[in-house]
DNA sequence: TCGAGGCCAGTTGTGCACAACTCTGCGCAA
DNA sequence: TTGCGCAGAGTTGTGCACAACTGGCCTCGA
């Protein structure tokens, strides 16, 4: 993260950037569920005082990624199975809305982004990396989110996505899921999505993604 | 608001309560869109310092109800038509999910609550009050939200509801909508919902509400 | 008369010290 | 030995003073 640029921005942008940074660390399991974060240490690392940092942590707490307890500490939350299932059921519905509600014409720029992501997916097949997989899936998610112009839908989908994104990585790390196989599946899925996008069939995109979410969840159960 | 009880609760509960209180003031137009709130005055009113109050304001800002600008002030946001339309389109979809996703059996307690609300609605027909209408609609919304056990869906629906709830009140205040007529319509709608609930037809509840939301938005356009 | 520049009151943002609270570990008594 | 209590370190929560910033007013010069 580019700490030097933190000085030139406005306060709100700093909060957004720090929020994104810490959120990514949680989702990439740099901070494991249950582990404790130190407000003092984080403030020192980012070169700010606890006050503005606490605003970032409060937001992450509202989003369900952190939990602060007075006198104890700030812990990274864990996600239990019931909660995970609820999120996935809701995401399966929202992904359909993302192509039905206030749809945006598919731009060449978006197609190019998805093609680039497909290439990354194919690259991962020969050199699997769980972290890179996570980043790639995140980028794909954010790219496809631009298919809708509905701002509240975008915001909610994003919150939900990051709420449970780390579970997949946890399962891979614990060898409950086979990374190699996931990479193969993902490359095929990305190709499917790109194909539907190129045909301009947004409805198909939605249902393809819905199926992928459902299957991904099914594989995680094991 | 019961300020005396603020002392005995934990910090988190205080934040939740203050958040709810200020949110209601915004939604009931005690704080008009565009008006400025003073952090100092609010802190004094609630008998706390600016620090914990600012956490509440930050949350309201994340929810889109406030907007703080450094050196200028904290303003109540206004809702433009495009945003309103987006929220309503999304709410029309979510209201269907509220009865389809993780449905909860209809309890007698819930039926009793809805019956009580129906009585309030009928009472308002003879003595219309925009503020009471708002509170009643909010209570109905929160009651029906218990039809689903899906926590993320509840949270998001709630955020969306309070995001634009004040628009209706604004339109009534500006006489763009006829309060008397709205009260009549609402009593009928509440009866419809109660009827479907008593029959245990959750799918019907969802679609009835969807229609109501759509019609309510249509009346607001004028 | 008009315009530019700066001063001032008022606001949000930040840093820091302390209060409130929890948990661990040690000592002491039964 | 075991249980209780207490003290201390460490953490989040709060209050307060000041920094950073904005917008309007006022002054001064052309």
TrEMBL record, chains A, B:
Coiled coil: none annotated. Residues 12-79 form the HTH gntR-type domain. Pfam families: FCD, GntR. GO terms for molecular function: DNA-binding transcription factor activity; sequence-specific DNA binding. SUPFAM superfamilies: GntR ligand-binding domain-like, Winged helix' DNA-binding domain. InterPro entries: AsnC-type_HTH_dom (IPR000485), GntR_C (IPR011711), TF_FadR/GntR_C (IPR008920), Tscrpt_reg_HTH_GntR (IPR000524), WH-like_DNA-bd_sf (IPR036388), WH_DNA-bd_sf (IPR036390). It comes from the Bacteria. Keywords: DNA-binding, Transcription, Transcription regulation. This is GntR family transcriptional regulator.
């Amino acid at each position: 993260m580019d700490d030097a640029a933190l000085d030139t921005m406005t306060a709100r942008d700093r909060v957004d950037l720090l929020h994104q940074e810490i959120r990514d660390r949680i989702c990439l399991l740099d901070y494991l569920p249950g582990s404790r974060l130190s407000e003092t240490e984080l403030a020192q690392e980012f070169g700010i005082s606890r006050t503005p940092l606490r605003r970032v942590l409060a937001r992450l707490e509202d989003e369900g990624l952190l939990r602060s307890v007075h006198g104890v500490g700030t812990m990274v939350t864990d996600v239990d199975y019931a909660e995970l299932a609820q999120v996935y059921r809701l995401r399966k519905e929202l992904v359909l809305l993302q192509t039905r509600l206030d749809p945006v014409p598919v731009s060449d720029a978006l197609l190019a982004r998805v093609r680039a992501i497909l290439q990354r997916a194919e690259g991962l097949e020969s050199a699997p990396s769980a972290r890179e997989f996570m980043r790639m899936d995140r980028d794909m998610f954010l790219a496809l989110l631009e298919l809708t112009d509905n701002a509240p839908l975008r915001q909610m989908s994003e919150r939900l996505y990051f709420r449970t994104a780390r579970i997949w990585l946890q399962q891979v790390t614990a060898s409950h899921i086979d990374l190699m196989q996931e990479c193969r599946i993902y490359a095929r899925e990305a190709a499917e999505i790109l194909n539907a996008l190129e045909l301009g069939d947004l409805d198909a995109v939605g249902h393809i993604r819905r199926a992928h979410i459902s299957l991904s969840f099914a594989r995680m159960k094991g």
